[in-house]
């Protein structure tokens, strides 16, 4: 196993690459073409860890991730919240006045809509932010720009014509760090998050009953999402994050009650809560 490598989806300079370097600067990053490839890199021993985005404060959840996490065979061992600072990048010698187009991932373009409109340039959708930066570097045309990270500017030799062009100042992506084996912190060692999936039985008020134990035992649920299984509208799986450790009484009792009313309860990870969660106004619970 490559003990000093962490895999991510995207090209060098992607925000996932930036997150890897921010959290684990001592590790070598491994670009992967897809999320599945990043999972495979860990399974096959080409990487020890994978950094995977799960949700963004502007765009919402990342498509397909909640299907991959339960089936991917990896364990969540940590989380990271990456502030997304979009940079307007162009070849050397370009000016704002001379720009005609800007390329980036559709979500990045939508997150910079006001800045793009103010510049009066045409937005062109690209598969990803780092790929757009690489393409602009290859073109070398000062009329064309990209929206990507500061790391992409460094890697592809582009100038930052305008910094921090995102419309929302809270633009943040939450990542989870995955490994082949769980790494559960001891109970009582500090704030932890437990992530799990479950299905409810097909009876009235099943979800209400399944979640009742979290309320009666004082367990704060910070995330609950549902998604279809197998393309069937009647087959639904839920993904949840809660504060607490399964070995501590409140969460242990809540999970016992959940197991009584639900099916296929599977814990995806028990890991330290990132300090970002406790910044005022950042994370909300069910209260």
Automatic annotation (TrEMBL):
Pfam families: PDT (PF00800). Keywords: Amino-acid biosynthesis, Aromatic amino acid biosynthesis, Lyase, Phenylalanine biosynthesis. Residues 5-180 form the Prephenate dehydratase domain. Residues 195-272 form the ACT domain. CDD domains: ACT_CM-PDT, PBP2_Ct-PDT_like. Its EC number is 4.2.1.51. It catalyses: prephenate + H(+) = 3-phenylpyruvate + CO2 + H2O. Pathway: Amino-acid biosynthesis; L-phenylalanine biosynthesis; phenylpyruvate from prephenate: step 1/1. GO terms for molecular function: prephenate dehydratase activity. InterPro entries: ACT-like_dom_sf (IPR045865), ACT_dom (IPR002912), Chor_mutase/pphenate_deHydtase (IPR008242), Preph_deHydtase (IPR001086), Preph_deHydtase_CS (IPR018528). The keyword Amino-acid biosynthesis applies. This is prephenate dehydratase. It comes from Azospirillum oleiclasticum.
